[in-house]
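User: Hi! I'm working on a homework problem where we have to compare a predicted structure to a textbook description. Could you give me the structure for the chain below?
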Amino acid sequence: MFTLRILIVEDDSVSALLLQRALEKNAHQIIGIADTGEKALEILDENGADIVMMDINLAGELDGIKTTEIINEKFDIPVVYLSASSDADTLNKVVGTNPSAYVIKPFNIRELNMVIELAIFKDRKEKELQKLNNELEEKVKQRTAELYEANKELTKALEKEREINELKSRIVLNVSHGFKTPLTSILSSAQLLQIYAEKDHPFKQKISKHAFKIENSVRALNNLLTSVLFFGKADENKLEFKPKKVFMGAFVKELLDTVKAGIENEVTIKAELGNLPKTITTDPELVYQVLENLLSNAVKYSKEGKEVDFSISIENGRLVSTISDQGIGIPKSEQGKLFDRFFRAGNVGIVEGSGLGLSIVKKCLEVLQGEISFESEAGKGTTFRVGIPVK
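Assistant: Happy to help. Predicted structure tokens:
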């Protein structure tokens, strides 16, 4: 049992004396005995106490309950109530003051000591808990301030990144547009060389061969620049759905002519045109990007002399197309990355490419609200299926 400094507040002098003797017998120090609430507050102002033994029914303006409320607010000392009554009204009155304990008179010494120990234990635990709560609140405030500062720095960094991306996009677009004009001139010159080579000339065969190489190289560069410009628009959120009337016959013819003009490996395209109306309404540029990239890839990665199957039709308000080749296929372990920008499968070998084609297809289909699926096996070929809503 530890020694406590105790204030007794009791207006019955006999009860106060008995309580004093009982407490002193257990080595506690009595700092004073007060018979009124006012006197109890005076003693506490002058002397510190560990606990107050408080009679509920005190004479004067301050009864035990009001005095306890002041002690709770001003001194934060545990209070044990003393009362000869245990009726419901009395208990209801004391509950609001959050007493540390309640002792019914007459009390026995053993019970009294146990109540005091529990009251002190409860008070200490409550204060420890309050201290922990205060520390936690302080840590939360500190962490909130740190997060606020971190968020400010992150916002600045994101704004800087946005500015850099905008600058990068502007540079890419400007440089790409700058390449367009000279490439067009080179392409025209190469085509003229081929025309001149048709006439009698001692170097006719060489002129035709090199003109063909120049033309194909320019087309490859032009396609790369078109891809760069496409992603420049996409990264700036300028890729929009612009529907218009499309004449299907002319659209499919231009698509096939463009892809066939770039064939270098003796691959043939077997086209199957299904139920096609004269016109549909969609975004022709985005649809063209989807089909041209898929068909060109099928041709490029096909084995020498093989055939690519291309079908297109309108089914239930959707443009449905299947492109199937007998080419190198896509390794199963790499199929999850197929639509990533700049991704190229490990088995492409010396076949040139930018790795942008399928990512362009995916981006266009997102704008068109279409979908794509594929089946592929390394060494056996790949089949793509595309569905695009049209009107």
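For your comparison, note the following. Residues 109-197 form the longest helix (89 residues). The chain has three domains: 5-107, 157-236, 244-389. Good luck with the assignment!
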